[in-house]
Amino acid sequence: MAMGMTVVADGGAVTLSVLSPSSDNSSVDDDGRPKRTGTIWTASAHIVTAVIGSGVLSLAWSVAKLGWMAGPVALLTFAIITYYTSLLLADCYRSPAADASLAGKRNHNYMEAVRSNLGPLQTKLCIISQYTNLFGITIGYTITASISMVAIQKAICYHKLGRHSASCFTSTYTYMRFYGLVEVFLSQIPNFSELWWLSIVAAVMSFSYSFIGIGLGIGKATEGGHSRGTIGGSIFMEGQIFPGGIDNVWTVLQALGNIAFAYSYTALLIEIQDTLKSPPDECKVMKKANLIGISTTTIFYLLCGCIGYAAFGDDSPGNLLTGFGFFEPFWLVGLANAFVTIHLIGAYQVFCQPIFASVEEWAADNYPKNQIIQRNFRISLPILKSVYHANIFKLVWRTSYVFLVTLFAMILPFFNDILGLIGASSFWPLTVYFPIQMYISRSKVQKWRKKWIFLQTLSLFSLVISLSAFVGSFQSVLKDLRTYKPFHENH
After folding, report:
1. What is the Cα 190 distance to its own chain's centre?
2. Count of CB atoms within 10 A of residue 245's CB?
3. Helix-strand-coil percent breakdown of the chain, rounded to 5?
């Protein structure tokens, strides 16, 4: 029974009660967790929200560095690899049951899947890789959102003053702090399952700004008097391979890292699959959602990357939307940047919820008698006709996480460099290595058989690509750090 007290507040009564475990089985699954309500459409929305993030804005730049030949091929290659390994990973959602006629134990997150299939040592490596990746992505989203908000402010300023030579400097740090404040509020959403509405809004926003970027790109590409790119990009020009020397090599490798970042959602696949109601079988639904999500995003990626390259040629900007400048139609560019910001607000939560859940479960398991960690308070607000479940530990921990992410974003505000570094460091282990090794272990694929050789070759190929992209992106970060002063911006 809940123990409660009533506190009188302006406008009505606020009931505060301490919650105890419920005996109502209709609201929980067979393992005691909250009832899952996800469908193929909510899962697809989660995937689109996770995949079409800030990475799409850098694809025109990436294609420009690779050229018309290698650029689209790289985009399709990463898409095919991601889709194939996502199918393998979906099979690992449930652990094998002793009786083949029964469903196995659910693995609620990526880490549990690795532990069930590969053991404790691999699990430790997975934890480091996955959470570093998720932490890095939220940093990248903070940087991107602040850039988009600054672009809106500048567009309004230039239009108001009537000239583009006007002084309209706006600090990205101000908007990073604002973005962090919004995320502090949204981070109190209890769990991944409760994010379905935010993911749908974010997915709509991602489609909207992608369409605007494509439309603006087509308009600019049809104008005369500018280059529409080259076959070789920065790789091959005027009969020379890497005519710009070693700097061009690093840039091309960084471009691969940016493309890898654009497909960095596999680390969330198990968490997304764990929101699906059953029946029908979660694995079959998730595979269909993977097909819908990845095929949809790949089409948008090809359109944004290729049309953006056609519009700007070899001078394609690192962020597609800011590359259109602050000219007419200024309101349309501003609207697109507003959509980017709204989308990234939702995508941020999709990527940080697994970290929240992991730390909170660890704390609950290790400190079962700690009242700060264990006690939940139910606050009933009659005016809003809603109930909010509060926990002091969650409030402090989640707020601290958002603060730390915002601080790192302010220290390292390098858009393309950071995206490339995150994408390169996470693509091989999370998207390729662990799904392949789990599938081999689960399906008992024998060594040196055709399938085993194919899977290991794919893993080795992806490792080489990831290492190369990491080196290129890391070199670019070092180059920027030589001249960068933290918390100082030039007008």
Report:
1. 19
2. 8
3. 70, 5, 25
For residue 96, the tally of other CB atoms under 10 A from its CB is 14
Tokens encoding 487:
């918390």
Confidence of residue 9 (pLDDT cuts 50, 70, 90): very low
Tokens of 432: 């390729």
- Asked if 207 contacts 185 with a C-beta cutoff of 8 angstroms, the reply is no
pLDDT value of residue 201: 81
Q: DSSP alpha helices (H): ranges in 313-449?
A: 330-366, 371-374, 392-411, 415-426, 434-443
Strand pairing category for 377-381 and 386-390? antiparallel
CA distance 146 to 150: 6
The closest of 313, 335, 290 to 80, measured between CA atoms, is 290
Q: Is the overall model pTM greater than 0.90, yes or no?
A: no
Q: Is the dihedral of CA 234, 239, 241, 242 positive or negative?
A: negative
Give the separation between CA 22 and CA 491, rounded to whole angstroms: 58
Q: What is the DSSP string of 25-48?
A: GGGB-TTSSBPP-B-HHHHHHHHH
pLDDT tens digits, residue range 199-221? Answer: 778 778 877 887 888 888 887 77
Q: How far apart are CA 250 and CA 246, in angstroms?
A: 6
> What does the radius of gyration of the chain's CA atoms come to, in whole angstroms?
24
Q: Domains in the chain, start-ordered, CATH in brackets?
A: 3-21+36-481 (1.20.1740)
The Cα–Cα gap between 353 and 236 comes to: 43
- pLDDT tens readout for residues 364-405: 888 888 888 878 777 665 665 566 667 788 889 999 999 999
For 29-82, the pLDDT digits (tens) are 766 677 788 889 888 887 877 666 656 777 888 888 888 888 899 999 999 999
Distance CA 400, CA 360 (A): 13
